[in-house]
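User: My collaborator sent over this chain with a note saying "see what the structure looks like." That's all I know about it. Can you take a look?
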Amino acid sequence: MSRANVLAGALLLVCGSAAAGQSSPPSRVETFADLPYWPGYWVSEYTLGTEISGIAPSIRQAREKGEPLRNFMNLAGASAPWNEEGRRRWAEVREIARGRKAQGWGFPMMMNAATPVQFLITPEEVQISNSYNEVRHIYTDGRAMPPEADMWPTVYGTSIGRWEGSTLVIETAMVSNPSDYFHGAPPFSEQARYLERIRLEDDRLVADVTVTDPLTLREPWTVTVSWLRDAGFDRMIQIDWNNDRTSFDGDYNTIEAEVVE
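Assistant: Without extra context I'll predict from the sequence alone. Here is the result:
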């Protein structure tokens, strides 16, 4: 046997052994099996049971006991470390917030509202939807956040996610101020960045949300929100905006009288 043939045979043996020692990447089915499963319809914990008046049980109980309201719609921004510009925006939003038609919540308030949300988890993407026909697309396929020149502001922003064990980590950018879209949203600027860490704790979903915004905040702001499954839902009901009869009597949300022609 020639020396060349001996060397070729040895190289083939080494390469073959190395290939045999390499594990093939997991299949999509295997990846799916490793992902968390968050079934059901989740409602922000302290807004669970909200009536058409807009009054949640947590609000009613606090009023009856004469206690300050805690944890209710934390993401609205009441406790945020606003700078001068942020305080100006906050006052403006509160002035125009009440009595808005229900055109949707936008981000971040769709994650902290009385309307249920549903999580659809796949290896490539997590979709979060609610009954207001709003959908967040969180891409978990390993892509990076697009360059700023390739994004434009929307009420849901652009979200890139990753899994750290059973915790979903979401980075969101380019969120336009949804206070013009619906009531109660924190008036961050389009420069704001949002970091969410969502995980299942027993029968609750919990998220730590950190917002940084050089235009409206003195420092990063972190708040925790949580959700409980609402047993009253067996399917996602989508709201028909053509039949929106939301009104406001000066104190509470009401339903407008039906117009009979």
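A starting point for your reply to your collaborator: The mean pLDDT is 84.
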